[in-house]
Amino acid sequence: MSAELKNDRYLRALAKQPVDRTPIWMMRQAGRYLPEYRELRKEAGDFMALCKNAELACEVTLQPLRRFPLDAAILFSDILTIPDAMGLGLYFETGEGPRFERPVRDWRSVNALGIPDPEDELGYVMKAVSTIRRELKGEVPLIGFSGSPWTLATYMVEGGSTKNFSEVKKMAFEEPEVMHMLLDKLAKSVTLYLNAQIANGAQSVMIFDTWGGVLSPRDYREFSLHYMAQIVDGLTREADGRKVPVTLFTKNGGQWLEAMAATGCDALGLDWTTDIGEARRRVGDKVALQGNMDPSILYASPERIRQEVQIILDGYGEGSGHVFNLGHGIHPGVKPEHAGEFIRAVTELSKTYHR
Fold this sequence. Notes:
The protein has helices spanning 9-14, 35-44, 47-51, 54-67, 81-85, 107-111, 123-136, 149-158, 166-174, 176-199, 217-234, 257-261, 276-283, 302-316, 336-349; strands at residues 73-74, 90-93, 97-100, 142-147, 204-209, 238-239, 242-243, 246-250, 267-269, 288-293, 322-326. Strand 2 (90-93) and strand 3 (97-100) form a beta hairpin. With 355 residues, it is an alpha/beta fold.
């Protein structure tokens, strides 16, 4: 497992160590914008069949690396694996996204939830992690990930995707003790889950707090950030003789960067609604930053994509501590050649910022 990494640019940038250029990977880089992914998904039958087959999950993870000179691979999986392992009956409705047959909306249903054993109920994820790590052959690091407790709770309480978060906020405000019981179980589950990913070969981990930004500042600290900090405290931070960095990403969380940086994480993901230069000034040398191009720019011309890359590189400025990424996942309708242009622009233009 401790094979020397041929390209550790991404890990070095997260540690704010010198790099020759800004490293790049894309959120959802293994996914629907690639025709080879769509073919494999058709063969597999459905999304979860892909996730639960280690060889297929490995193949999907490696697909973008064959096309593009990316600096990291990210495990192909889903943020809802933990609630699925808790027995809530996850299924995917065409055009509707994920749904749960048995949402949790009261003390009894929350109390009945067990904390999944990552090597048992989530063993298929660990098998995928170890398979991918082996097949990468030390080319680039492997990123593991999980949803944040608050984000997982939103799906579990709402029963799927939502626009107004009425059920989850009702629980948080009407029955905070029930919500805290749920979030505490999820924080323990996520900690075990990420540590198992690290034990099986993940060299960095990321926590996706997709829905933290729907909360007020006070409620964000109470219901989201508190539990992410708890996870950061419980994570394995070294493996194979190297630090295992952790990145926190709250969508629409730009107003809370200082509080997020104070959790002890190594990096913060930024969406496109926060200026990266201002973010760097605010957090100083405390953490690295990842981001933060609007994914919709990839619909534009190659010239416009290149121009946006230059603007973000200028915004961050010279020196290490920046991992270039989109501000959220790549959209399914983006042409792969536009993603290629984005990656090419970062690899070519970023060299002058690292002397």
